[in-house]
Amino acid sequence: ESFLTRLRQTEPHLRSFLHVSDTVLRQANELDEKIKRNEEVGPLAGVLVGVKDNICTAGMPSTGGSRILEGYQPPFDATAVRKIKELGGIVVGKTNLDEFGMGSTTEGSAFQVTANPWDVSRVPGGSSGGSAAAVSARQCVVSLGSDTGGSVRQPASFCGVVGLKPTYGRVSRFGLMAYASSLDVIGCFGSSVEDAGILLQAISGHDKLDATSSKQEVPDFTSQFISLNLLESKPLKGLRIGLIRETLDDGVDSGVNSAIRGAASHLEELGCSVSEVSLPSFSLGLPAYYILASSESSSNLSRYDGVRYGNQVTADELNALYGDSRAKGFGHEVKMRILMGTYALSAGYYDAYYKRAQQVRTIIQKSFKAALDEHDILISPAAPSAAYKIGEKKNDPLAMYAGDIMTVNVNLAGLPALVLPCGFVDGGSAGLPVGLQMIGAPFDEEKLLKVGHVFE
Ligand code: GLN
């Protein structure tokens, strides 16, 4: 009840949700009854979870933030959602996003603009801005987002919450609307590292419905939160941290820079050794990402043809039905991505763009591997600035894309990364949060959670 009251009070200002469930209290009461009868309830019993609206939920709208899916209600739950429900979690509603995850501000939603709870004249980041704002404003306990190029980590940074992007394949993508399938992963938001870890525990693991989900064993991420001795003077003794040189100074807001350097000193105080590490290919990540993500999306979005899902226009013949449904159903940014992707994949340009970008991706993977052979964890800012004003970059897509520089490389390499608040810069009435990004070796979420938990 307290969460729902808070949600009702804050939602008119934030607009984080596209849909709020009307069965939350009923589900909570049913859990209470079970407890009274001494029946088993799961470890997430009564935990309110927000779910990004590009993740399918049975019997609840799932629009992907797009008009083309307005009114669509999937007949099934995404695997991650199913697992949450099986453990007693309650889906409180569907959170706002940039259409199909394409954007960094949540202004690209076809339905509404979400505001940043720290300053409602600013963006919450994106594309999972609704999920980040909802946890930040305590409209729900934890939430699910998706991260193709930073969409969990950048909004976590802008909204001052914890955001966790798991290793590619750690969490099933079944029921996640595909944007760029080789990069997409479902991720977690929480107001503490522990909360994000508990949610990761719930949704991880192999799923036969997603052939790219990994068979790697899922460790117990959460027991370490209890066993860690936070009173020890150097709890992280012996850990080697690499501060990525290319992510500091040039093009980075000075307040962000000093917050990250401050975080590095704090890690040293906790016993880590911190050294700078160079990833010379870092700046290639952005162009490679936008070519690959657009290419994959141009193929993935061909399923929205006005026949199989959602909205259909009336037309005299089949091609007009496809064309008009897509023309009316997709927003501007989505159309631009489809055009860019189709161009990059077309005969004559394929080698120059798509193939080249794949080669760059391999170089980036190798340079991360080399850096992670020498270090336990790499650190960087999660974004080059704190949250900016709504409208500021709306008509300048390249400026918006440039803000993804800190996060896209991690998706190209398929690595896990954790973002957590590490300081403030001036802005708003209370300052604006800055996020520290910690990047780990494949399937080493456990270490990220440990270091993050000690750090906060
Ligand atoms: N901002 C990036 C994009 O628009 C990343 C989005 C995401 O991770 N879904 O593609």
UniProtKB/TrEMBL annotation:
UniProt gene name: LOC107416367
Primary site of residence: mitochondrion
Q: What does this protein do?
A: Allows the formation of correctly charged Gln-tRNA(Gln) through the transamidation of misacylated Glu-tRNA(Gln) in chloroplasts and mitochondria. The reaction takes place in the presence of glutamine and ATP through an activated gamma-phospho-Glu-tRNA(Gln).
Kindly report, in one word, the top-level EC class recorded for this enzyme: ligase
Q: Name one GO cellular component term.
A: glutamyl-tRNA(Gln) amidotransferase complex
Recorded catalytic activity of this chain's protein? L-glutamyl-tRNA(Gln) + L-glutamine + ATP + H2O = L-glutaminyl-tRNA(Gln) + L-glutamate + ADP + phosphate + H(+)
For the keyword DNA repair, the answer is: no
Q: What is this protein called?
A: Glutamyl-tRNA(Gln) amidotransferase subunit A, chloroplastic/mitochondrial
* Cellular localization per UniProt: Mitochondrion; Plastid, Chloroplast stroma
Stated EC number for the protein is 6.3.5.7
Q: Which GO terms describe its biological process?
A: glutaminyl-tRNAGln biosynthesis via transamidation; mitochondrial translation
Beyond the main fields, what else does the record say? This protein may be expected to contain an N-terminal transit peptide but none has been predicted.
Positions spanned in the full protein? 71 to 526 of 545
- Give the similarity note: Belongs to the amidase family. GatA subfamily.
Top-rank taxon, per record: Eukaryota
For this UniProt record, the keywords arranged alphabetically read as follows: ATP-binding, Chloroplast, Ligase, Mitochondrion, Nucleotide-binding, Plastid, Protein biosynthesis
- What Gene Ontology molecular function terms does this protein carry? ATP binding; glutaminyl-tRNA synthase (glutamine-hydrolyzing) activity; hydrolase activity, acting on carbon-nitrogen (but not peptide) bonds, in linear amides
Asked whether the keyword Cytoplasm is assigned, the reply is no
Record's subunit section: Subunit of the heterotrimeric GatCAB amidotransferase (AdT) complex, composed of A, B and C subunits.
* Domain called Amidase: residue spans: 1-449
List the active site. 52, 127, 151
